[in-house]
Amino acid sequence: MTTYHIRRGSTLERSQLVKFLQRTYQELFPQQTDFAHLAITVEQYFSKDTPLWWVDFSGEESRAELGTITRVESLNISSPLLPPASSPVACLWMGNAIDQIKGDRHAHIFLLYVVPEHRRRGIATALMQYAENWAKQRGDRQIALQVFQSNPPAINLYNHLGYQTQSLWMVKKIN
């Protein structure tokens, strides 16, 4: 039985977070080679108020002291600050936003990423449930995220989980 564990990240893991952000953008925009600016994004927004969780793959063995995701039909995990068992295979980075219509603070997903070799195993769905539980615990009434139109698998996942388009981000090149 394949086992995954989730653990709370720390602000000392900035470089790992930057690497995961870069991997995300490199997959979506392979024609672009420089994503150094993402380090500035992490520097500006990553703090104790924008929590980060990692998912580690531990193969067949189980470590009961950590929360466990097993072929991830459900999410029965905790987030202790323990050292990683291996290199992370997924991450969830949360933040805060203000609903521009009602003025309420709500959770915002900055990053949800699963390395390609571990996709289609329910990890992203489990992390989204984890995000929702975290947001509910702190009193939020909604979660928001941004997804690129060029990422149909993510759009399908979010639609399947009940997310709805509220606005469209439109861009016009002026050069």
Describe this structure in words.
About 13% of the residues have low confidence. The relative contact order is 0.17. The protein has a 6-stranded mixed β-sheet with strand order 3-1-2-4-5-6, with helices on both faces. Helix content is 27%, strand content 23%. Strand 4 and strand 5 form a beta hairpin. It has 4 helices and 6 strands; from the N terminus they run E-H-H-E-E-E-E-H-E-H. Helix 1 crosses helix 2.
How many DSSP helices? 4
Helical fraction equals 25-40%
> Based on DSSP secondary structure assignment, what is the total number of beta strands?
6
Can you give the mean pLDDT? 86
Structural class per helix/strand content?
A: alpha+beta
Along the chain, the helix and strand elements come as EHHEEEEHEH
**Unreliable segments of 5+ consecutive residues:** 61-68, 70-84
Name the beta content range: 15-25%
**Biggest beta-sheet profile:** 6 strands, mixed
Shape: globular
The whole-angstrom Rg is: 16 Å
Q: Span from first to last CA?
A: 53 Å
Query: How do the strands of the widest beta sheet line up side by side?
Result: 3-1-2-4-5-6
List the main descriptive attributes of the protein structure presented here:
4 helices, globular, alpha+beta, 23% strand, six-stranded mixed sheet
